[in-house]
Amino acid sequence: MGIPDRGLLEWLDEASTERGLYYANRDDGWDFWSYRDLGELVLKTAAALRANGVGQGDVVGLVLRSSPGFVAGFFGALAAGATPCSIAPPFAFQRADEYEKHAGQLFETARPRYIICDDESLERIRKVTAGLGLTEPGVFDELVAGVEPLERPMPLPEIALLQFTSGSSGFSRGVQISADALRTNLTGMRRWIDWSPEYPGISWLPVHHDMGLVGYLLNVVVTGCDGWMMQPDDFIRSPLRYLRCVSEHGAAMTGMPNFGLAYILRRVKPAQLEGLRFDSMRAVIIGAERVDPQVLEEFHALLGPHGLDRGALLPAYGGAEATLAVTGLPLGEGWSTQTPDAGDAASLAGTAVVGCGRPLEGRTVTIVSEDGEVLPEGQVGEIIVTGVSIASGYVGDAGSASGTSLGDTGLTTGDAGFLRDGQLFVIGRLGDGLKVSGKMVFAESLETLLHQRGIPERRVAVLLGVRDGVPTGVAVFGGAQPGWRDLAHEVLAEWLGDAELLAVDVARGGIAVTSSGKPRRRVIWKALCAGEFSATTQPLTPTTQPQTAA
Fold this sequence. Notes:
This protein is of the alpha/beta class and 550 residues long. Helix content is 28%, strand content 25%.
C-alpha cells in the first residue's frame, strides 16, 4: 500500500489515546501526553487565539521550548487559520544582548499578531518586543485556561509555516512555506525512510530549528507514532540518557547534526553501554552541517557492537528554503565517500566527502558553474534545487548576503557540491571559501580536518577571504588549548599556500554562532575586517603559544 499522504491536521480526527509524546522530566522519567489529549489542547489553543483577535493568515509567534504547549501552539495556530512561526527562546543564546538583537529582528520581520511564550521567557520577550507595536505576549497556560475547544478547525492558511534561516551569513531571513509544500515535504520524508505509526522516534533537537521542527516533531505528530522528547540541555547533560531511551523504548528514528554524534563520542564510553541494544534503530538522519566520515566510523564502532546497523546512518541535505529535506540516503544502503574529478577542486582539503543521498520524490538537484551552465557528474559547482516543497518566498528584506535565493529557476542554494552516480556530495558554502592556485578551498573542509586532529566541534571556526587585498585564513579559537595553534598552522599552511594566516582567541563559548550552533563566519569576518572585533588578532605561527582567553 505504501506510505499515505496525510493532511497537516488529519491526525486530529483519529487522535489515539494509546500513542503520543513522552517528555523527559527532571526525575529521569517521562511525562506522557496522548494524541487525544494533545488534540484537545490544540483546539483549545485555536479557540483562544481566535478570541484574541487572530484571523485567517495572521502570524502567531511561538517562543517555547519543546513541550505540549509548543505542539498545541503550532497546530493550534494552523487550526485557527493562522501561520505559526517558531522563534528561539532565550536559552538558545549565551548572551542576553545577542538574543535581544537576534529576536528583535525576527519579531520585526514576522510581525506576529499574537506571541505565545512561557513564564521562563515572558519578561525577556516583553523587553525585546517593546516599541515594535506588537500585542503583549501571552503565557501559554494562561492563554488556554478555561477555554472551550474550537468545534472544528478553520481552513488552513495559505502559508502554513514561517521559518527563519539559521543566519550564519548575517540576519536570519523569514521563509514562507505553503501548506502544500509542508505537507509534501513531510510525506516525502516518511516515504524516504518508510516511516509508519508503529515506529517510535526520539529527538533532543530544539523545535526552533527546522531539523527539530519539520524533520522530527511535525513528522512524528502527523504520522501518529510515539515520540520521545528531550530538551537540548538534557542531551548535553547526559547523552547516555538519550541512548538508554533508544534501547529501553525501541526508538526507530532519530536525527541530529554531526556535532551530536561527535558529542556522544566524547561523553560516552564503551563500558557505559553494557546491556544496551540499538537493533531497533532504523534511521539516524544526519544533516544541518558537513558530515565527518571519521565521526560516522567511530559512532558505528561505538554502537555497532550493541546492534546498530551501519545502514541506519543516513546523511541528508536540505534547508529552510526547501522546507527541509532535499536528498537522503536510502535505508540500509550504507554511507560512502567520494572525491570530485581529479584537478577539479582543492576544496576537499585532502578529505573525502560523505554522500548525502539522492533527491527525494518530486525533487531535482543540478550542479551549475559560475556561468549557470549545468556541470557533468564529478565536477564541483553550485547546488540548484527544483521541484516540490520549495518555499513561496521571503518575508521582509534582511538582504541576501547568504547567497541563497528563490527564483524562476528554483532554489539557488549558495552551497558547493558535486554529483556522483546520482548522489549529492556537499562541500560547503560558496561564500566561505578562498581560491588557491585557481582552486577553491572551503572553510568547512579545513574545520573537518581540525576536528579529526583533535580540536572539538564548536571550539574552532575557520574564516577565509581577502583582507586588504591579501588572501587570508583565520583560525578563531574558543578557549584555546595547548597544541591547537600548531595543529591549525599545520593544516592552514598546507592548504592555503601563501595566504596570510591569523589567529584569534576568545573565551570558550565566545565564537559567534547561530541559534542552531553554526559559526557565523561571515559576520565574524566582516567585524574583523572592519576593526570591530573585540579579541586580539595575531599571526598564526607554529611557535606562538596560546594566549589567555579574552
